Every structure is written in structure tokens, then in C-alpha cells.
């Protein structure tokens, strides 16, 4: 089980690196799916099988498909890959790379300095999660429902296109 | 079942979070910035799952469900904003939207 965790972790890190360095958006999204699947395996080894299923269904399923639909609507072509290549020069990314490396070094130092007890993994299945979710966390579930409702209304309102409603004869007259 | 140390899980979460942060910083394309924010949210959820594993309690998984809900709402609103921005400016460059022109 431990070896599975480390292999899945390595796959997740590698594919995430590929996501943020690709020029082509679809390639990046495919690597993102691989990354999410690897993290789902990590969840499974950490004793959260229900979360592994949710990770695949919602992240790798719904969210990535949503982004792919938007990319298809944008009609991107080979030129956009070239502009991506121009935007991602070493001069641009060297500064953020140093800053993030410093932050990562700090985090690694904090985690290695602290002492953690090694405990056996006990699988917490969907039944226990459901009992806790609809017991003490009831308010959180209702707030999540409101958040999703606000998300739907917001996405509909923002996504609406204000088309000019002009009859085609009138448009021809206006052009003349 | 063999135990996975909490340290390794938290380190994985930290590395993924930093990678997402790096993606937000270096990319000019708005869609890539949105994807990197998703990576960061996912890393935060992973940290919660690791904490839930340490004490074998469902609370960490419940926080992950909340993060998942928030990510879904965020990505739908964000993609609607991106579509609107692309129709207005005809580009995905985030620098093009730096002025509000109110």
C-alpha cells in the first residue's frame, strides 16, 4: 500500500509539472486528468475510497469536461500555441520559480522538522462520512447548496450574450 | 494494511500547491490560470484528507466535499467570465483585461 502511494504521488507531481508547462491547452488538460486520477489513487491509499470516487467523477469528469467545452467554444488554432510559446520565456518564469522554490523549501523544512507518529491506515468509508455529513455538518451542506445555486445563477447571468436583435432587412438598410 | 506517514502526504500536498501557485504566476493565459487554481484547491483538499487519515475520522473527508463543491461553483463562474472576456477583448491574455475602463 505504501509503495502504491509513492508511485501515485510521483505520477501526480510529474503530470502536474507537465500541465503548467504545456503550450497546447488540450494537452495540458489531458495531463490534468492523469494528475487527478493519480491523486484519486493517493486518496484510496489514504483510506478515503469515497473521496477517490468523487475525485474521479467531479474533478476528472465534470470540471475538466467543462473546461474542454469552453476551449471548443473559443475556436483556438495553431497560432494560439505559438503565442503561448512566446509568453512562456525563461525571463518571465525565473523570478516566480525562485520565489515558489523558497516557499516550498520552507514548507519542506516545517514538515520534516515536526515529528509525526506513524499510524495504520483505517479506511473511513462512505457510510461514516454520510452519517457525519448529515449529522453535525448539516449547516455546511445547506450552505453548499446555496453556494451551488449562486454559482448556477452567476454562471447563467455572466454567460448570457447580449445579441443585437435586428431584423436582417433593417440591418441591410443600415449598411447602405 | 501498511501505514503511510502523514509527513509524506503533507509533502505531496505542499508540492502540488506550490506547482499550482507557480502556474498562476507564470501563465498569461486566463484558462491556464484557472487550471492552476484548480490544482491548488485540489492540493488543499489532499491536505485535509491526510489529516482525516491521521485520526481516522470522517471530518477531513467532509471538508474535502466542501472544497469540491466550491471548486465546481468557482470553475463554472470563472469559465462564464472567461467566455464573456473573450467575446469582449478577442484574446485570452490576462494583461488585456488589466484596465476596467469604467
UniProtKB/TrEMBL annotation, chain A:
Q: Transmembrane region positions? A: 6-23, 30-50, 56-78, 90-111, 131-158
| Enzyme class, spelled out | translocase
Q: How does it sit in the membrane?
A: Multi-pass membrane protein
Q: Which domain of life is it from?
A: Bacteria
Instruction: List, alphabetically, the InterPro entries matched.
Output: NADH_UbQ/plastoQ_OxRdtase_su6, Nuo/plastoQ_OxRdtase_6_NuoJ
Which Pfam families does this entry report, sorted A to Z?
Answer: Oxidored_q3
Chemical reaction(s) catalysed: a quinone + NADH + 5 H(+)(in) = a quinol + NAD(+) + 4 H(+)(out)
UniProt function note: NDH-1 shuttles electrons from NADH, via FMN and iron-sulfur (Fe-S) centers, to quinones in the respiratory chain. Couples the redox reaction to proton translocation (for every two electrons transferred, four hydrogen ions are translocated across the cytoplasmic membrane), and thus conserves the redox energy in a proton gradient.
Q: Where in the cell is it found?
A: Cell membrane
Gene3D superfamilies from the entry?
NADH-ubiquinone/plastoquinone oxidoreductase chain 6, subunit NuoJ
Q: Which family does the UniProt entry place this protein in?
A: Belongs to the complex I subunit 6 family.
Kindly state which keywords UniProt assigns to this record, in alphabetical order.
Cell membrane, Membrane, NAD, Oxidoreductase, Quinone, Transmembrane, Transmembrane helix
Predominant localisation class: membrane
PANTHER family, from UniProt?
NADH-UBIQUINONE OXIDOREDUCTASE CHAIN 6
Upper classification of the source organism reads:
Bacteria, Pseudomonadati, Bacteroidota, Cytophagia, Cytophagales
Tell me the protein's name.
NADH-quinone oxidoreductase subunit J
The answer on whether this UniProt entry bears the keyword Phosphoprotein reads no
EC assignment: the record states 7.1.1.-
Molecular function (GO) terms for this protein are: oxidoreductase activity
From TrEMBL, chain B:
TM regions (residue ranges): 6-25, 32-56, 62-83
The record gives the membrane topology as: Multi-pass membrane protein
Pfam families registered for this protein in UniProt:
Oxidored_q2 (PF00420)
Grouped into one coarse class, the protein's main location is: membrane
Q: Which reaction does it catalyse?
A: a quinone + NADH + 5 H(+)(in) = a quinol + NAD(+) + 4 H(+)(out)
Q: For this protein, what is the EC number?
A: 7.1.1.-
Which enzyme class? translocase
Q: Record's NCBIfam families?
A: PRK05715.1-1, PRK05715.1-2
HAMAP family attached here? NDH1_NuoK
Protein name, UniProt field: NADH-quinone oxidoreductase subunit K
What is the species listed in this Swiss-Prot or TrEMBL entry? Pontibacter aydingkolensis
Amino acid at each position: 500500500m505504501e509503495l502504491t502511494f509513492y508511485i501515485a504521488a510521483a505520477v501526480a507531481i510529474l503530470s502536474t509539472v507537465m500541465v503548467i508547462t504545456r503550450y497546447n491547452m488540450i494537452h495540458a488538460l489531458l495531463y490534468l486528468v492523469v494528475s487527478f486520477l493519480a491523486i484519486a489513487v493517493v486518496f484510496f491509499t489514504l483510506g478515503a475510497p469515497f473521496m477517490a470516487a468523487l475525485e474521479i467523477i467531479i474533478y476528472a469528469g465534470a470540471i475538466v469536461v467543462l473546461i474542454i467545452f469552453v476551449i471548443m467554444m473559443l475556436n483556438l488554432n495553431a497560432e494560439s500555441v505559438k503565442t503561448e510559446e512566446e509568453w512562456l520565456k525563461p525571463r518571465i518564469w525565473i523570478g516566480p520559480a525562485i520565489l515558489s522554490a523558497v516557499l516550498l523549501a520552507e514548507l519542506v523544512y516545517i514538515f520534516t522538522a515536526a515529528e509525526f507518529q506513524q499510524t495504520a491506515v483505517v479506511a473511513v468509508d462512505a457510510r461514516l462520512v454520510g452519517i457525519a455529513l448529515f449529522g453535525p455538518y448539516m449547516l455546511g451542506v445547506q450552505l453548499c447548496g446555496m453556494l451551488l445555486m449562486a454559482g448556477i445563477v452567476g454562471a447563467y447571468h455572466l454567460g448570457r450574450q447580449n445579441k443585437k436583435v435586428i431584423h436582417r432587412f433593417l440591418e441591410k438598410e443600415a449598411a447602405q | 494494511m501498511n501505514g503511510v506517514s502523514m509527513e509524506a502526504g503533507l509533502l505531496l500536498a505542499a508540492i502540488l500547491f506550490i506547482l499550482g501557485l507557480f502556474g498562476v504566476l507564470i501563465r498569461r493565459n486566463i484558462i491556464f490560470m484557472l487550471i492552476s487554481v484548480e490544482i491548488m484547491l485540489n492540493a488543499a483538499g489532499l491536505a485535509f484528507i491526510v489529516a482525516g487519515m491521521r485520526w481516522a475520522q470522517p471530518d477531513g473527508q467532509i471538508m474535502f466535499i466542501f472544497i469540491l463543491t466550491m471548486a465546481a461553483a468557482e470553475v463554472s463562474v470563472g469559465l462564464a467570465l472567461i467566455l464573456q472576456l473573450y467575446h469582449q477583448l478577442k484574446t485570452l491574455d490576462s494583461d488585456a483585461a488589466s484596465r476596467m475602463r469604467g
